[in-house]
Amino acid sequence: MSNVRTLTREEAASRVMVALDYPNAEAAEGLLRELDGIPCFLKVGMQLYYAAGPSFIEGLKKRGYHIFLDLKMHDIPNTVKGGANSIAKLGVDVFNVHAAGGLKMMEAAVEGAELALAGTGLQRPLIIAVTQLTSTSQVVLNEEIGIEGTVEQAVVRYAQLTRQAGLDGVVASPQEVRLIKNACGQAFKTITPGIRPAGADIGDQSRIMTPRQALDAGTDYMVIGRPITSAADPRTALETIIKELVER
Ligand SMILES: O=c1ccn([C@@H]2O[C@H](COP(=O)(O)O)[C@@H](O)[C@H]2O)c(=O)[nH]1
């Protein structure tokens, strides 16, 4: 089945999650000023969250931003349940855990989030599990992490476990999106970092695709950090990516 899509500018922008990998709120606010008015998602990871804390997230939500809180929880089920409970109260739209934590741990994340929102009438955030980090190559998977088989097999296996646990989708490379959708259904969400516009520096990523290739593979959201945040003109960098997604 062909996944080739035609999107409006607005739809394209809302599928881009800009990774705010900054050391403090001031630095992140600098980027937000530059991107003002572009309806993209924001992804807040460990660096910014540990520096700026929950109040920064709540502030972004009050200003109407859609937030993916990328803290990749991986702990015993009881601790993850508590973590998910606290995160859900922040009002984020998406948060995540590591699928390597197992079925019970992922179920505990759902339980914790549902408990936090019980009786509020609020929708629970999407809960997503990381399959294999997009920096992980075939060699690293087999020789360092010690998982046998191909990256694709490992990713699909974790995606199936994630679905069984009742989560909404996974983080994976865009290279694996078709396999994941075939195994878990088209409605099962894929969030894909490892996005590099043609000619961009790959950095520490390993399993990459361009924005257009990722969209055509069927990804739901693409996470993009340095190609935007390290650009001389971040607004133009993001607008160029959006244009690539809109144009055929
Ligand atoms: O497998 C994963 C999971 C999360 N990430 C995060 O996405 C961004 C990617 O940033 P780039 O600068 O575009 O490489 C970053 O925040 C990672 O923590 C990932 O890359 N891979």
From TrEMBL:
The protein's name in its UniProt record: Orotidine 5'-phosphate decarboxylase
EC number: 4.1.1.23
Any one biological process term the GO annotation gives: 'de novo' UMP biosynthetic process
Biological role: Catalyzes the decarboxylation of orotidine 5'-monophosphate (OMP) to uridine 5'-monophosphate (UMP).
Keywords, in A-Z order: Decarboxylase, Lyase, Pyrimidine biosynthesis
Annotated substrate binding sites: 21, 43, 70-79, 134, 196, 205, 225-226
Pfam families reported in the protein's UniProt record: OMPdecase
Enzyme class: lyase
All copies of domain Orotidine 5'-phosphate decarboxylase, residue ranges: 15-241
GO molecular function (one): orotidine-5'-phosphate decarboxylase activity
GO cellular component, one term: cytosol
Gene designation: pyrF
This protein's record includes keyword Ribonucleoprotein: no
Recorded family membership: Belongs to the OMP decarboxylase family. Type 1 subfamily.
Residues at the active site: D70, K72, D75
HAMAP family according to UniProt: OMPdecase_type1_B
Pathway named in the protein's UniProt entry: Pyrimidine metabolism; UMP biosynthesis via de novo pathway; UMP from orotate: step 2/2
Description of how the protein assembles with itself and partners: Homodimer.
